Amino acid sequence: MVGKEILEEHIIELGMKSTSQPAFGIQKAREITIPLPPMELQKQYSRFVKYINGIMLNVQKGFDTLSMLRKLLMQKYFCADIEVVE
After folding, report:
1. Which of 14, 26, 52, 55 has the most CB atoms less than 10 A away?
2. Cα-Cα-Cα-Cα dihedral sign, residues 59, 60, 63, 65
3. Distance (Å, whole) CA 62 – CA 56
4. Quick count: other Cβ atoms within 10 Å of Cβ 22?
5. CA angle, 70 then 56 then 47, to 5°
6. What span, in angstroms and rounded, lies between the C-alpha atoms of 32 and 28?
7. What digits encode the pLDDT tens for the residues 16-46?
8. Domain edges within the chain
9. Are 32 and 14 in contact (CB under 8 A)?
């Protein structure tokens, strides 16, 4: 969050003129340099996100299966003819 605040402050400072309202135009936007992490770090992050998404997908599939089994059991216990043994 700190990086975002610094970037926002930098953008505002670039756009300030002598008025009380900051002015921000296309030229000022072109002057902004946005720092990018090294390509290897970007690729590493991408692999990590894909890995986490795969785990989340597997967990969701497991949850869906358990939910379906629960519904089947509920139907079996509450909708089927139940034989009472005394």
Report:
1. 14
2. negative
3. 10
4. 13
5. 165
6. 7
7. 555 566 677 888 888 888 888 999 999 999 9
8. 1-35, 36-86
9. yes
